[in-house]
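hey
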């Protein structure tokens, strides 16, 4: 294979039947691209073949972790959108083998198949903001600092905010840029960073343009429901659909950037264009909100009268604040998020969720 224009061949989308991947497929086809999907329909994400799959794409249902399966779908492929991933924090550390198998071994199998095919085309990876660990913080005395992981003792005492590791003062959270040090603090985060490293290694050796898109908290139609592998927005939305109040961890003041899936898909199409520079880019809304605000918005727009319950519970793998600077994506990719928080939450509050086999 040789490096040619994306418009001149097939774009392979791994995980293209999933939440984000299927929207990427839709946008690519709408932009005039030929698309081939490779997806295993993982039971933790799919109860059955989804009914939203675009009829204009070629769908191949096979296991990404099998090199031979990947080799069979590479004919005519000039670019790869790698969206396949086991997502979320899962249940506990017992999930470690599954995460490493699907995320790391799956990426390795994809890259080995590309290597055998002498592929030098563009690779775009759906990465995650979880690689940062905690977000960016500033101390009044010590400037920008990196707080250590929050301890069980502090969290149990209801002390949720990280403090300055030098003087113990309160910290002010700030938008994090792509040049921040990475500090993955759970298994999922470690696998996402390893995906970036594997793809970057391939790109250096083969001369392939490589783009890593670090998604922040993506939400929107087609999210899986009622599963520990879904995001917090889906968990809250599923609770409301079942007639239960969303349960908000900690005090609800943890800040995130909730970005609509259609904006994420648009960023992927931009990153796949020949003129897009290689590199790492945050994909977010640029409008951070608290988890409590998100729960309140969903409950209000859902209309069933339920209100969120702030529980004070916590998970050691969670971080307090992480939200993005999207200046680089705006400047270098031309990324411009179009769906505002209120508009997106109003839609998502009543949008159908995708069933899984782990209900």
């Amino acid at each position: 294979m040789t490096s040619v224009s994306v418009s001149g061949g097939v774009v392979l989308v791994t995980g293209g039947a999933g939440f984000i991947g299927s929207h990427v497929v839709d946008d690519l086809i709408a932009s005039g691209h030929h698309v081939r999907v490779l997806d295993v329909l993982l039971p933790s994400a799919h109860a059955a073949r989804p009914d939203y799959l675009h009829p204009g794409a070629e769908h191949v249902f096979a296991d990404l972790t099998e090199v031979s399966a990947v080799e069979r779908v590479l004919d005519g492929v000039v670019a790869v959108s790698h969206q396949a991933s086991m997502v979320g924090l899962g249940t506990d550390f017992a999930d470690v083998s599954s995460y490493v198998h699907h995320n790391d071994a799956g990426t390795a199998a994809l890259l080995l198949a590309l290597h055998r095919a002498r592929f030098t085309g563009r690779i775009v990876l759906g990465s995650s903001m979880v690689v940062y660990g905690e977000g960016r913080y500033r101390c009044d005395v010590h400037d920008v600092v990196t707080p250590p992981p929050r301890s069980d003792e502090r969290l149990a005492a209801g002390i949720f905010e990280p403090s300055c590791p030098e003087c113990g003062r309160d910290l002010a959270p700030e938008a994090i840029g792509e040049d921040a040090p990475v500090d993955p603090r759970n298994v999922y985060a470690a696998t996402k960073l390893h995906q970036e490293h594997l793809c970057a290694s391939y790109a250096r050796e083969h001369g392939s343009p490589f783009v890593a898109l670090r998604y922040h908290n993506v939400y929107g139609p087609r999210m899986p429901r009622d599963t520990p592998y879904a995001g917090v927005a889906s968990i809250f939305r599923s609770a409301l659909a079942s007639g239960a109040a969303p349960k908000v961890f900690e005090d609800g003041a943890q800040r995130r950037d909730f970005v609509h899936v259609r904006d994420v898909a648009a960023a992927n199409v931009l990153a796949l264009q020949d003129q897009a520079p290689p590199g790492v880019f945050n994909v977010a809304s640029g409008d951070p909100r608290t988890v409590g605000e998100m729960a309140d918005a969903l409950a209000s727009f859902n209309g069933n009268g339920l209100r969120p319950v702030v529980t004070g519970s916590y998970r050691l793998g969670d971080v307090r604040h992480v939200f993005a600077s999207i200046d680089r994506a705006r400047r270098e990719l031309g990324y411009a998020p179009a769906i505002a928080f209120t508009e997106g939450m109003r839609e998502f509050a009543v949008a159908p969720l995708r069933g899984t086999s782990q209900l």
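The mean pLDDT is 92. The longest strand covers residues 122-128.
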